Please model this.
Amino acid sequence: MSFVLDNSVVTGWYLPDQATTYTQTIATRLETESALMPPLWQLELANVLKTACARGKLSREVARQILDTLGELPIEVDRRPGPNQRQLFELAMHYKLSSYDAAYLELAQRHGIALATQDTQLRDAAIAAGLAVL
Model:
């Protein structure tokens, strides 16, 4: 795995109001590198797509196409035993993160790889933890 990919970057690939040069740069990296995501990413992604559909930003058909496209990218959902609730709680408290963001931070720490995120708090936490941030 080359880097941990936060959902804040992925949403920039299909929601125009989230798109940045950074999200495009990370998308380009997936042409030659792979990414790792925590299992909660699937829940986050499904919820973002559902919300975008409910708000009229995406049609269901477009959301389904996004899911199909993402399924073809070199993104792996980590299936190895991860942190327990206590570990996530401690990381979240220490770095003032949501438990969801703490899961991305923990995954990058556990694998010793860089993190790609648009989330300022998560980026700052990764830097404070000594991780590389793309």
Remarks:
- The first helix runs from residue 7 to 10.
- The chain has a mean pLDDT of 95.
- The chain is about 55% helix and 10% strand.
